[in-house]
Amino acid sequence: MPQIGLVSAVNLRVQGSSAYLWSSRSSSLGTESRDGCLQRNSLCFAGSESMGHKLKLRTPHATTRRLVKDLGPLKVVCIDYPRPELDNTVNYLEAAFLSSTFRASPRPTKPLEIVIAGAGLGGLSTAKYLADAGHKPILLEARDVLGGKVAAWKDDDGDWYETGLHIFFGAYPNIQNLFGELGINDRLQWKEHSMIFAMPSKPGEFSRFDFPEALPAPLNGVLAILKNNEMLTWPEKVKFAIGLLPAMLGGQSYVEAQDGISVKDWMRKQGVPDRVTDEVFIAMSKALNFINPDELSMQCILIALNRFLQEKHGSKMAFLDGNPPERLCMPIVEHIESKGGQVRLNSRIKKIELKEDGSVKCFILNDGSTIEGDAFVFATPVDIFKLLLPEDWKEIPYFQKLEKLVGVPVINVHIWFDRKLKNTYDHLLFSRSSLLSVYADMSVTCKEYYNPNQSMLELVFAPAEEWISRSDSEIIDATMKELATLFPDEISADQSKAKILKYHVVKTPRSVYKTVPGCEPCRPLQRSPIEGFYLAGDYTKQKYLASMEGAVLSGKLCAQAIVQDYELLVGRSQKKLAEASVV
What we know:
- It is globular, with a radius of gyration of 24 Å.
- The protein is built from 15 helices and 21 strands.
- It starts with 5 loop residues before the first strand and ends with a helix.
- The relative contact order is 0.18.
- The longest helix is centred in the middle third of the chain and has 24 residues, at 234-257.
- It is an alpha+beta fold.
- A hairpin with a 7-residue loop joins β8 (194-198) and β9 (206-210).
């Protein structure tokens, strides 16, 4: 089958040195001293084994030289913002209740064996909650790394590079609940409650939306908008507010009805000036779905605004304190295995084998082995599932609708520089450039990647459709030209200022589904019309669209459907055994 994710790596000239020290409340990152600082030389991840380090896809002429990580007497303290009060919000309590139903469900007399394809967050979530309900998930991952769209790899220097720049919002109740259940809340590094935008008309300058802690929602968001006078004028703010009134008054039914119109067309229809779209919603559209406002469904924007404006901490952001396979995915795997489930890497599915009645008989793997079960789940991206869709199912309307759901291309760029860049923040930054979406200096925002002497910028290159087939060097050249605007005093396109030490380019030709107008009716429920077959993934029907939160919620809803179908699935298994004994 075609390769869906492409990874390439290049190591260039090495200059400078770096020391990695940080302060953390997480004991797994090292030993803390009494003053809260990490004891010198107690570094964990630089030489650790990982789920992802085996995958080494490199360009043919890549050279390798190790970055010098010289541990001197330097002591650096990183202070995170405290975790916001999320546990008493309506959405968090709703997510917690759904989680509790799996733990509280009657223990099955015959635990089901459920075969799940795909160890991204959707598949991991499905397996985790089925295990909580007393069943035996068998989770199959095609690659040798966990995470799917949050996968990451370690290069020969011990540095990590990721599939995407992942942000955990306060408005992600199922994700936040999952962290709490696993006991890893301290692995989220919360940042100040702000949104920070670059100013293309003023190279090197930024404009901020600061959400005051003292005010409840939506007043904190309203004040953040009103106080920002650099991006929108007062007349533009007023027209935008008037344009949003139908959404605020119409509620969820109005939001859902806007699926058929693009962001740009909706803004014009509501009399909102084009400059509002250009100044704010190009950046927001690219951050949400890697596409521009003329393509993105307005429903996506309204859902995000609804969460951000109606929940006090909804737009507050956190970074994971290290690489996702180890710091997020492995705790889920350990939980699954502790309850009798299995997680198998390097288990690529070649074919979905059907019975005579059209239901699933087994999954056939690339090595020719077969995996049978009482139920089957496909938790891969929609594009991969469509490649393996059995011929007999293609005329079923449930599956036919999937044709409109297509993954959007995205490119994630990592650049290590020979110096510490000064014009940046300990936060996610919206670039507002034509080629880049969001970026962050991961040497500042993330404990595991911390480096006081050199910066590592991680950038989302979007929209990427015209660039996905171009060479890494072309992508880096284009990125450097954009960075020269963001860092005019520190970066130039010809590297006469900051020098590139090395870079990694991760291409995903088909990432999250492209949220274009009219695709909402095509999103499938987790329970398919085929008995014993289910779907999970952010493209399936759930209220958080294409996101990590959507993937985790889809897994919970998939697990819920299987638990609800327990008697039916047990009956199918007993019938299968009876037929086998007759033969």
